[in-house]
Amino acid sequence: DWTMHSFIDSTVAEIRAKVGSDRVICALSGGVDSSVVAALVHRAIGDQLTCIHVNNGLMRTGESESVLRFFREKTSLTVIDVDATEFFLNALDGVADPEEKRKRIGYGFIEIFEAEAKKLGKVRYLAQGTLYPDVIESVVFRGKAPIKSHHNVGGLPERMQLDLIEPLRELFKDEVRELGLELGLPEEAIYRQPFPGPGLGIRIMGAINAERLRILRQADVIVLEEMKDAGWYRKVWQSFAVLLPIQTVGVMGDGRTYEHVIALRCVDSRDAMTADWSQLPYDLLGRISNRIINEVRGVNRVVYDISSKPPATIEWE
Ligand code: XMP
After folding, report:
1. Ligand 1: distance of its center to the CA of 263 in Å?
2. How far is the CA of 231 from the centre of ligand 1 (A)?
3. CA distance 302 to 243
């Protein structure tokens, strides 16, 4: 439509004027925001843009592989991939505090982007998909501490060498989706639920390790499959599993078990600034719970989070 066209035209012109003959890197997670930024900046400056996909070891099962396959096969973007799994898991070793996790992940990303920029040469800008609600929730608000350091806003070290290009800074998610469709991205890239930059790292309460990642990844796949099969995936803002830092008693056959608890978080929202817990059908809740308990070794209990935002937040950390 007309407003989107004029937004694209004016933003493309601004990006060209700002960048000149420099080069730009874009942090491409494969989520809606970064995909739309990459497409928009590419329209403005073509091959002066290089996208960098970082696997931080906190992605969903198969996520990095499918993101890379999509962009390399279906688009003309140049995408470098960096597998930084070990680097991030080492940096997070033994870290249980939510803000400390966010900071270490944010700093890790910047370190990697700067190293890649140096290798490419002539890179002056980092493009990223910061939206309006990210800006609001990360700034120091009337003298109060920020709610959470979103890695792509508050987490940036002051000393960062690269200047930022954030063309979505004034948009809400539904506008970003409309923009992405207008730019020619397919629905599979646009109608994805948001996934936070720190990934599964902020869905594992307490310290992160390989075993806890294994449990959460398996539960996460089941939640996604069941939501999609039931036709609920697109109806909600987000639906995901959280691994709690406690074990509870259960029974299997005639033996006692003492295993992990998965919380299911599913919310309706327009812009993530406020949210309601989703009223999923009981039979869908039941299928998700049964499958997680039967299929994921180490889990004997599933609970449903019925808190709205505020006063809770969407993610648990
Ligand atoms: P909260 O938990 O603050 O989340 O209610 C609001 C929305 O933001 C997402 N989220 C993030 N996205 N980097 C991101 O790119 C982050 O650090 C981050 N933390 C939360 C969250 O999934 C929800 O959609």
Report:
1. 17
2. 24
3. 10
Taking the CA of residue 312 as reference, the ligand 1 atom at the shortest distance is: 5
Q: Is 150 touching ligand 1 by the criterion CB < 6 Å?
A: yes
pLDDT of residue 137: 77
CATH code assigned at 137:
3.40.50.620
With a 6 Å cutoff on the Cβ, whether 272 touches ligand 1 is yes
Q: Is residue 44 part of a domain?
A: yes
Q: What is the pLDDT of residue 149?
A: 73
Report, as an integer, the average pLDDT of 69-75. Answer: 96
pLDDT at 134 over 80: yes
Provide the domain limits for residue 131: 2-190
CB 208 within 8 A of CB 201: yes
**CA atoms of 172 and 246, how far apart (whole Å):** 36
Q: Indicate which residue's Cα is closest to atom 16 of ligand 1.
A: 150
* 211 and 99 both lie in a single domain: no
For residue 272, which of 170, 138, 137 has the smallest C-alpha distance? 137
Q: Is 274 touching ligand 1 by the criterion CB < 6 Å?
A: no
Looking at the predicted structure, is the pLDDT value of residue 154 above 60?
no
Are 289 and 262 a contacting pair, CB within 8 Å?
A: no
Instruction: Indicate if 128 and 244 belong to the same structural domain.
Output: no
Report ipTM (2 d.p.).
0.98
* Per-residue pLDDT band at 110 (split at 50, 70, 90): very high
